[in-house]
Design brief:
Elements (H helix, E strand, L loop, with lengths): L2 H10 L13 E4 L6 E8 L5 E8 L2 H18 L9 H11 L6 E2 L5 E3 L8 H19 L9 H10 L7 H20 L27 H13 L14 H12 L3 H5 L6 E2 L6 E4 L2 E3 L7 E3 L9 E4 L2 H13 L20 H14 L10 H15 L2 H8 L4 H7 L11 H4 L9 H6 L1
Length: about 425
């Protein structure tokens, strides 16, 4: 066998590079130019191995330039190293999720974007938070092939401490399962998804509780009197917080829906005032906050007749709307854009604390929504509550928003039919 055949055999016997990997870097000086040429083989995503080169004034510079080129090519191909850490896989998974891009104008309105086959921005933010707050600290340093069902089970149950954390545990299970599915799809993990076999996590069924009439009145007094005392430092107090509370109580809407109401969404032309719930405010972790031109879901589109105490608020705020209210918002900020839910929550906590209300009772804007649902269910039907809240499924309203009656109604008129008959056998025996 001649030398050419021997060389051909040795090339055919060379072990194939993994997809996205490169071989040994060699360098040789080009005598004609005086520059060094560094070369290596790289196997691309199409499975074909090619030779790539970079030049440099010295051997070291040529090799450095080639390695940088290989790493960039590897990065561009979206490949991870063999058996990467869970943290690296989680980062790649988050980056792979299609999130709608939103264009926001100067007034805080969404002018382009929306749901286009991906997930909502709020959902991605929730996933991102679970990864960085829980999964990365708890499991991130482990190699992907070190993840076992027992590993996942122990980690998820460790998130529940003192009877709290069930929601985070369930969300972490959902996110971790998707991360491992991503690893399997990209040939980074051999075997079945380990999260699938984790035992069902416990769920604490919280009973919805509406605010009592006394508590509601106490809240009204607290937000009305907040920062009204003479000599109180800071900006001049307004009645905005009190107005927000009244609209929450009169509509049962979500705080984002209430703060997204525009003056043009209000119709006071008839005997009963009406508000169109046609949007919601979104406060992403990254990027600008904005008014989304549709509510949480299609069932949330609704036109709400509102009681007189809400109409009074609407009329006054429409008159008080300043010239810089470019967004045309019912609840405007000092800059003329939409107020944010985080600001309302923070202000409400401060007002209740200043009024000395019991800090053990956590009162959020959502408490008013449960109060409305409970009242409508008791006085009318669960269906009436679901319609007001914008729920397509009455069962959801029933389970999460309506406080069940603790006091049984007076059924004594009916129960009296079971009373003993006068002159019964027992009475005659006693006589």
């Amino acid at each position: 066998m001649d030398r050419r055949n021997i060389e051909g055999c040795s090339l055919m016997g060379r072990s194939s590079l993994p997809v996205g990997a490169w071989g040994t870097v060699s360098a040789k000086k080009d005598e004609s130019s005086g520059k060094w040429r560094a070369s290596c083989r790289y196997r691309g995503q199409d499975g074909v191995t090619r030779t790539y080169s970079k030049f440099g004034s010295t051997k070291g510079r040529a090799e450095t330039a080639l390695l940088a080129s290989m790493k960039e090519r590897h990065k561009g191909a979206g490949r991870l190293a063999t058996n990467p850490s869970l943290q690296d896989v989680a980062t790649k998974w988050l980056a792979s999720i299609e999130v709608p891009r939103v264009v926001v104008d100067a007034n805080g309105d969404m002018v382009a974007g929306g749901i286009s086959g991906g997930i909502r921005r709020q959902t991605w933010d929730q996933y991102d938070g679970i990864v960085h707050r829980h999964i990365e600290p708890g499991l991130g340093a482990l190699k992907i092939n070190e993840i076992r069902t027992s590993t996942c089970d122990y980690f998820l149950r460790s998130l529940v401490v003192g009877g709290k954390g069930h929601t985070n545990a369930r969300l972490a299970k959902t996110v971790l399962k998707q991360i491992m599915s991503y690893a399997i799809r990209h040939d980074l993990y051999a075997g079945d998804n380990p999260v699938t076999e984790v035992d069902r996590l416990g769920r604490v069924q919280k009973k919805p509780v509406g605010l009592s009439d006394a508590t509601t009145e106490e809240i009204r007094n607290a937000v009305r009197d907040w920062r009204q005392a003479p000599g109180h430092p800071g900006p001049r107090p307004t009645n905005t917080l009190a107005d927000v509370v009244e609209v929450l109580l009169g509509t049962g809407a979500r705080i984002g829906e209430v703060l997204a109401i525009r003056l043009k969404d209000i119709d006071l032309s008839g005997e009963v005032g009406r508000i169109a719930i046609a949007g919601t405010l979104v406060e992403p972790r990254h990027g600008p906050k904005f008014r989304q031109h549709f509510p949480k879901n299609h069932a949330s589109y609704r036109i709400l007749p509102v009681p007189r105490f809400v109409v009074d608020v609407l009329v006054r705020r429409m008159k008080e709307s300043p010239s810089n209210n470019k967004a045309g918002a019912l609840f405007w900020s000092r800059r003329g854009t939409y107020m944010q839910g985080s600001s309302v929550r923070r202000t409400l906590r401060a007002a209740l604390a200043e009024a000395g209300m019991d800090p053990v009772v956590v009162i959020t804007p959502h408490a008013f929504r449960r109060t409305v649902a409970t009242l409508l269910a008791r006085e009318l039907t669960d269906g009436a509550a679901a319609s007001m809240l914008g729920h397509a499924d009455v069962a959801m309203t029933h389970a999460a928003y309506i406080e069940r009656l603790k006091e049984v109604p007076d059924y004594t008129v009916v129960l009296n039919r079971l009373a003993p008959v006068e002159g019964s056998a027992a009475d005659r025996q006693d006589s």
